[in-house]
Amino acid sequence: MTNLIAAAAFFVLIHLLISGTRVRDALTGRIGDGPYMGLFSLTSAAGLVWLGFAFAAARSAPDNDVLWGVSTGTRHLQLLIQLVAVTFIVVGLTTPNPTSVRQEGALDRPGLVRGMLRVTRHPFLWGVAIWALGHLLVNGDAASLILFGSMLALGLFGTASIDAKRRRKLGTKWDAFAAQTSNVPFLAIAQGRQRLSLGEIGWWRFAVAILVWAALAFGHPWLFGVPALP
């Protein structure tokens, strides 16, 4: 279990304490954006592989205590939660967004704030957070708490980290964008700063999300070794 804790801490902290802070600014100032992105991508990939192997080992360890039970109801609820999570992730990955890697230039596009950006300026990370929360519902062991809990923390705190990074780099451009959007999903809509427009998101994105969700749900036993369907 110690190895899993170390892997989870490493993966989360390199994103929150390096990628999202002035440490990144100092590193890019010394070696440039391109080399930094290459090194950080390799480090993240290595951390993710470490996390995966550590989780697999911890699940069969004798100290992997069961902390809460799972019912048929929570397994059905999990499927719905994962549909929401996959939708946020798919839409987030396919929508031009200045919070995404190397997409700061999107701020110069006229009419940028539309579709999913009316809902949240961090759709991908909120999708990751929702994905992690859903998995916590149906995985009540200590190893799963560490893995999915760390992903939940990264998804939630990562949004604030990116906001701070973009504000330092983009200044007033970012402030104008942030004033039109919200971090928390639907908050800008609830406050009257935006309106919901599902058509702007693109129905093809919803269709792709459903297909990805179905593939993951039915293919879960072959992909991850455990069934997702009740």
Automatic annotation (TrEMBL):
Official protein name in the record: NnrU domain-containing protein
Main localization of the protein described in the UniProt heading: membrane
Compartmental location: Membrane
Keyword hit for Metal-binding: no
Species: Phenylobacterium zucineum (strain HLK1)
Residues in NnrU domain copies: 4-227
UniProt xrefs under InterPro entries: NnrU_dom (IPR009915)
Membrane topology: Multi-pass membrane protein
Annotated transmembrane regions: 35-56, 77-95, 142-162, 203-224
Keyword tags: Membrane, Transmembrane, Transmembrane helix
Entry GO terms, CC: membrane
Record keyword Transmembrane helix present: yes
Domain of life: Bacteria
Coiled coil: none
GO molecular function: 9,15,9'-tri-cis-zeta-carotene isomerase activity
